[in-house]
Amino acid sequence: MTQHLEQIGLDTIDAFLNSWNSRNAEQWADSLNYPHVRPSPFGPIKIAPTREDYIARVDYQKVIESGWDHSEWDYQHLLHLSPRKIHVAGQWSRYSVTGEAILSAPIVYVCTLVNDHWGVQSRFGADFVDENTDTTEMMSRGLGLIQDFVNNHKNRNQQVCAELLNYPHYSIGIGELDTTNSPAEFNLTDGTMKIDSLTAIQTGQHSLNASVDLQLSLNGETQMIQGIVHVNDRDGHLGIQAWSWLIARD
Predict the structure, then answer these.
(1) Which of 132-163 are b and which e, b meaning 16 or more Cβ less than 10 Å from the residue's Cβ?
(2) pLDDT per residue over 25-55, tens digit each?
(3) How far apart are CA 246 and CA 250, in angstroms?
(4) DSSP state letters, the chain
(5) With bands split at pLDDT 50, 70 and 90, how would you rate the model's confidence at 2?
(6) Model's pTM, two decimal places?
(7) CA 247 remoteness from chain centre
(8) Are the beta carbons of 201 and 210 closer than 8 angstroms?
């Protein structure tokens, strides 16, 4: 089962990049699941409720005018597996016809199974930095912020937890998107959280994608869950912009 899910995760993001290279908006839209959202540290965060909404926004011409010929994977790394949701880290680069790299983007992909279709439900975009850029401070601040959220959740400090998010805040479900638009709308979930592991997956100067293994205790039972948390600096505020959780597999 594990090997099967691993292959599904890789096939799902391959379909995403291959259909992008096809320059066919309809085919590219078919590689996704909806509602679709791409949180990142830059620009407005747009939601495509449906396939038709997504197709209407696709503009290949601007990318072609940048000199783009095709995109390739720099790496792919499976993070978390479950029967209906898979997290995969990847980075693609755009290349010109002569093989010159134009742009690179590190992203965590939330792949889901909706109506018997595996597709990318969300893309958590981190900002690209080269190997000479020091991202130690962002990594430390971002991981510390996630730990602070869990600590304050344990203490039932709703106000502090709300202040540790960026808004709109997105929780990625399976074929669902839960959006919290302001601190006043935020409500603590039930249960007690304890972090088993917390790892930076992709770190830029303005954002962090982290992997979290979490013990969630509720009504006397403890369940292991795994998640991807996207932290970014928007408008001068470092906060958690989005997360996606799944039940850990043994």
Answers:
(1) eeebeebbeebbebbebbbebbeeebeeebbe
(2) 999 999 999 999 999 999 999 999 999 999 9
(3) 13
(4) -HHHHHHHHHHHHHHHHHHHHTT-HHHHHTTEEEEEE---SSS---EE-SHHHHHHH--HHHHHHTT--EEEEEEEEEEEE-SSEEEEEEEEEEE-TT--EEEEEEEEEEEEEETTEEEEEEEEEPPP--TTS--HHHHHHHHHHHHHHHHHHHTT-HHHHHHTEEEEEEEE-SS-EEEE-SGGG--PPSSEEEEEEEEEEEE-SSEEEEEEEEEEEETTEEEEEEEEEEEEEETTEEEEEEEEEEEPP-
(5) confident
(6) 0.96
(7) 17
(8) yes
Whether omega for the bond prior to residue 168 falls within 30 degrees of 0, making it cis, is yes
**242 conformational bin, left if phi > 0, alpha if psi -120 to 50, beta if neither:** beta
Structure tokens at 62: 């601007």
Instruction: Judge residue 24's burial from the number of C-beta atoms within 10 Å of its C-beta, 0-12 exposed, 13-18 middle, 19 or more buried.
Output: middle
Residue indicated by tokens 């720099």: 74
Q: Six-digit token pair at 92? A: 């693609």
Identify which of 138, 153, 146 has the alpha carbon closest to the alpha carbon of residue 207: 138
Q: Which two tokens stand for residue 201?
A: 């997956």
Using the predicted structure, report yes or no on whether residue 62 has a pLDDT greater than 70: yes
Q: What domains lie within the chain, and their CATH numbers?
A: 2-125 (3.10.450.50), 136-247 (3.10.450.50)
